[in-house]
Write a structure and sequence with these properties.
Helix content: 10-25%
CATH topology: Pnp Oxidase, Chain A
Distance between the termini: 7 Å
Amino acid sequence: MEEILKFVKSCPCYFIATCEGDQPRVRPFGTFHEFEGKLYVQTGHVKPVALQIAANPKVEISAFDGQGKWCRITAVLVEDPRIEAKKAMLDAYPELRAMYNENDGNTAVYYLTQVKASICSFVAPAKTFEF
């Protein structure tokens, strides 16, 4: 888990793919945080991505480091409604506090479960992880 966390956090952004009916949806994200031994992402309940996750929590994440390596993650997201989880995420990304607050009813944090991940490059074998 630590290697995946370090890799994704080293990237300028990463992309989460969800489904809306039969249409894939992909968008950039910037929040990737470890809390209580789990990897977390964050968004707002008012965004379409939150509705898509509620309907189908299976996601794929892709991150590229700009140096020829990328990470692919398949996971199931589980919302964590606790204030402590939201606060931990917002404390790790204080720039988000201009838009989010752990008590606002909009902030949504999700932890990754059933994770299958790989770090790949064109010149080396993929490293795979499951947790």
